[in-house]
Amino acid sequence: MTRAYNFSAGPATLPEPVLRQAQAELLDWNGVGASIVEISHRSAEFIAVASRAEADLRKLIGIPEDYAVLFLSGGATTQQALLALNFAAPGQVVDYVVTGHWGKTAIRQVKPYVTVHVAADGEPGGFRDIPPRAGWQLSPDAAYVHITANETIHGVEFRDTPDVGTAPLFADFSSSIASEPLDVSRYGVIYAGAQKNLGPVGVAVVIIRRDLLERSGQPRADIFDYRSHAARDSMLNTPPTWNWYLAGLVFQWMLAEGGVEEFARRNALKSQLVYQAIDGSGGFYRNHVAPAVRSRMNIPFFLPDETLTARFVSESKDAGLLALKGHKAVGGIRASLYNALPVEGAQALVAFMRDFQQRNG
Ligand SMILES: *Cc1c(COP(=O)(O)O)cnc(C)c1O
């Protein structure tokens, strides 16, 4: 059996040791005579798995005690809607900085509940840059300011945490959480669907500064209430136990590999290799994002025409490089270089790019 290098944007590649461990203990977890997904989420065994995952994530990212950590089903998009329900009063203004596809999605999810003010918009510039902070039109009374830390489709990433004044900063970190050190205390809420950098799809991690849980927000059912989820340790209803367990194994693996500092080093190296291959190709490969905000995690790039793009996708797959086809919204090629994609994967991609250009350039 050979596992290919998998450049999928999400659900994405997982660390092989994690998959092997899950396989080895699938039928009988830790001697209980059943798999981890066949036992109660209220059992001592599962609660131990769940608490360890939270403790490991806190250690990995450096999450202060005054932040709650939730493991919830519903993905990142559901959290986008819950932000408005939990943290903004009906009709209150919320500020959004739009730097790509997911920023627009985030706005769509809250429009029924609040007054959205777009404080800055990268769309007129084709999402090739992040509008300079000095030009953002922040509202004086916004409930929060929302950014997308890394735009998975457009390949635009904040390289610094913006200062937004007194309103709490909320950030969608779905495709870059745990990819480098992060100062959690600069944020009110950090959320991420797991399927990019943390584990399998089906669970989202939500990190909330506890004082925000006191906000009354909007009329909502209990199940949409972060305070209720926090009070019940994310077990208000049956949590996605398999996903929580596997994410926990990924956290253990990341810590054992050296933590976020080590992944920052690897991710910088991988992305530099690919950007150098693009920029050094004499225009055969092109990436349009301003160098200062180029994503380290998702690199969209383009070939001279559609025929070559299609050939690149099919030949790279034959060469053991999976899922390089770009998102349909932008076309071209996209290489996602999450934590679990080894440096050798990026090296193999770059070697393939050079060879492909020699044969087709
Ligand atoms: C994938 C992704 C989402 C959507 O996640 P779902 O879990 O499918 O809802 C949202 N934001 C970003 C930045 C993403 O990469």
Low-pLDDT residue spans: none
Q: In percent, how much strand structure appears in the residues?
A: 5-15%
- Largest sheet features: 7 strands, mixed
In CATH, the homologous superfamily of the largest domain goes by the name Type I PLP-dependent aspartate aminotransferase-like (Major domain)
CATH class identity of the largest domain: Alpha Beta
Subcellular location: Cytoplasm
Enzyme class: transferase
Main location: cytoplasm
EC number: 2.6.1.52
Care to describe what's here?
- This protein is α/β, with parallel strands linked by helices and 361 residues long.
- The chain has two domains: 16-256, Aspartate Aminotransferase, domain 2, CATH 3.40.640.10; 258-360, Aspartate Aminotransferase, domain 1 (Alpha-Beta Complex), CATH 3.90.1150.
- 35% of the residues lie in helices and 15% in strands.
- It contains nine helices and 13 strands.
- The chain has helices spanning 16-24, 44-61, 75-87, 101-110, 226-231, 241-257, 259-279, 306-318, 343-360; strands at residues 5-6, 67-72, 93-98, 115-121, 145-148, 150-151, 156-157, 169-172, 189-193, 204-209, 298-301, 321-322, 333-336.
- The strands form four sheets. It has a seven-stranded mixed β-sheet. The protein has a two-stranded parallel sheet with strand order 1-12. A two-stranded antiparallel ribbon has the order 6-7.
- Strand 6 and strand 7 (156-157) form a beta hairpin.
- The model has no long low-confidence stretch (mean pLDDT 97).
- Pyridoxal-5'-phosphate (PLP) is lined by residues 10, 75-77, 102, 148, 152, 172, 174-175, 193, 196.
- L-glutamate binds at residue 42.
- Pyridoxal 5'-phosphate binds at residues 76-77, 102, 152, 172, 195, 237-238.
- Its cofactor is pyridoxal 5'-phosphate.
- Its EC number is 2.6.1.52.
- Keywords: Amino-acid biosynthesis, Aminotransferase, Cytoplasm, Pyridoxal phosphate, Pyridoxine biosynthesis, Serine biosynthesis, Transferase.
